[in-house]
Each structure stands twice: as C-alpha cells, then as structure tokens.
Write a structure and sequence with these properties.
Blueprint lengths: L4 E6 L4 H13 L5 E4 L7 H7 L3 H5 L2 E3 L2 H5 L4 E5 L10 E3 H8 L9 E5 L8 H4 L4 E4 L11 H19 L15 H17 L8 H15 L3 H19 L1
Parallel strand pairs: 1-2, 1-6, 2-3, 4-6, 4-7, 5-7
The structure holds S-adenosyl-L-homocysteine.
C-alpha cells in the first residue's frame, strides 16, 4: 500500500541519521529510500543505527541532484520545520497521509523530501514541491531530528494505509499525473515563451516563475492536460515568430 512513496534525503551530514531513517521506514513497512549527495555514505554509523534495516541501505538509490531524484515522481512534498516568507500550500503529516494513501494516488509515485540537518531545504528546492509538509509541534522549538521527522511522517502513512486498505479497491480512473521531469520541461518551455513574447523580463522572471509554478503545482496536471498547454505554448511561439 505504501510502495508508491519514496523518501528522499537531501545532503544529509550525519550518516547515523541515514541509518535512523532506514529503521524508521522499515518499522512502518516502507522501503524506497533515496539519498541526494549524502556527505558520508556508506558508513558504519549508518549501518549500526539502521539496526535490522540495513537491507534498505543496501538497496538505497543515490542521486547527484534533487531533480534527478524526483524525475520519475508525479507528486513532490517537501518536509519543512520553518514558516516560510512565501507561502507554499501546506499540509500536516496527517492531512498528507489522508490525501495520498489512496488507491487512486497509488498509481503515482510520490516523493517525500527531507532537508539538511543544519539548514533544511532551500527555496529553489521547495519550488519543485507541490506541497510543504509540516509536523505540528511547539512553535518555539519546531525542528525535529531528521530521522524523527521521517518516523512521524511514515507512521501517519502507515496508520492511514490500515484505514484505507479495505475501501479503495475498484477505482477505474486511468488519469496519469505528469511527473516532475515533464513539469520541469513545461516550466522551461513556458519561461522561454514568456520571454519571447516580452511578457517576462529576465531580471523579474524568478518571482513570476515561482508564482506560476505554485499555480500549476496546486492543480496537479495530468499528462493529457500538459500536452494541451505545451501545444498552446508552441502555437504562441510560432505565431510570435511570424
Ligand atoms: N535547521 C533546519 C531544520 C533541519 S531538521 C531548518 O531550519 O530548516 C532536518 C529536516 O527534518 C528538515 O529539513 C525537514 O525536512 C525535517 N523536519 C524537521 N522538523 C520538521 C517539522 N516540524 N515538520 C516537517 N519537517 C520537519
């Protein structure tokens, strides 16, 4: 029930945390772990903290960048301890579990992205997330240890999967959401088109593109809808070149 989730750890500094995450995941019946540029891995610390979950460390996926790690995912959720100045759409860990542990969503690959121990996720990394995922806690001390944060999120998914297991069979909906790589190509295409028609100015393009990403991330485009939008972009570029 939870095999469509992938836990992605970005530039983890302490290998012990990687082991702690593997253990937390296996306790909750999850196995897809991906490391983006870990500072130290493999490591004896990771193996000893993983305890009986070193099989997850043996099958771990290691990626050179976050883009790479989420390329095959249709939905990307970024776990964040902090209030951000730009408000990305936010879900609590429980709301996330209720929304994404369903048979319909199990056709999509979903990445749960966790940040660095000392500085979390950067804004440009949150830009590729459809939602921010927050674990509610003491607002004056809201930063959990990385492996603890993964534990809480996986626990919520596990509980939700038990509740949903009976009730979600028989969904006939064939819609496939666009994955992160397809969305990234779409955003590049849109940015180029908006520059070509002089709607965007290079120096202002970052904040406008960030807002446009928020709009499109909010509505979870499927591949057919994305084809239509790319067709419109191609048409307006051709039209502009005439
Ligand atoms: N000092 C960092 C926090 C690092 S904790 C900062 O200021 O952002 C390491 C990671 O654990 C975070 O990037 C986040 O992915 C996750 N995490 C920690 N506490 C969390 C919380 N309350 N809600 C959601 N994710 C949390």
């Amino acid at each position: 029930m939870l095999s469509h989730f992938k836990i992605v750890l970005v530039e983890t500094s302490h290998p012990g945390n990687i082991g702690g995450v593997a253990r937390a995941m296996k306790n909750m019946g999850m196995s897809n772990l991906c490391l983006v540029n870990p500072k130290i891995f493999p490591s004896a610390d990771a193996t000893s903290r993983a305890s009986g979950a070193s099989d997850l460390l043996n099958s771990v996926e290691i990626c050179p960048s976050l883009q790479n790690a989420i390329a095959d995912c249709q939905l990307v959720l970024g776990a964040s301890a902090r209030d951000r100045t730009i408000s990305w759409p936010e879900l609590t860990a429980r709301e996330c579990a209720e929304k994404f542990v369903t048979a319909e969503q199990s056709k999509n690959k979903i990445a749960l992205v966790f940040g660095r121990e000392n500085s979390g996720l950067k804004n440009h990394e949150l830009d590729i997330c459809h939602y921010l995922l927050h674990i509610p806690c003491n607002p004056k001390f809201s930063s959990l240890n990385l492996a603890t944060a993964v534990q809480v999120v996986c626990y919520e998914l596990f509980v939700a999967s038990g509740q949903k297991a009976e009730s979600t069979i028989g969904d006939k909906n064939e819609i496939v959401l666009a994955n992160a790589q397809q969305m990234e190509l779409f955003y590049q295409h849109m940015q180029q088109t908006l520059l070509d028609i002089d709607f965007l100015h290079p120096e202002k393009s970052v904040s406008i593109m960030r807002r446009l990403r928020r709009i499109y991330n909010r509505i979870s485009l499927d591949t057919k809808e994305l084809d239509i939008l790319r067709g419109i972009l191609r048409f307006s570029q051709n039209h502009n070149n005439k």
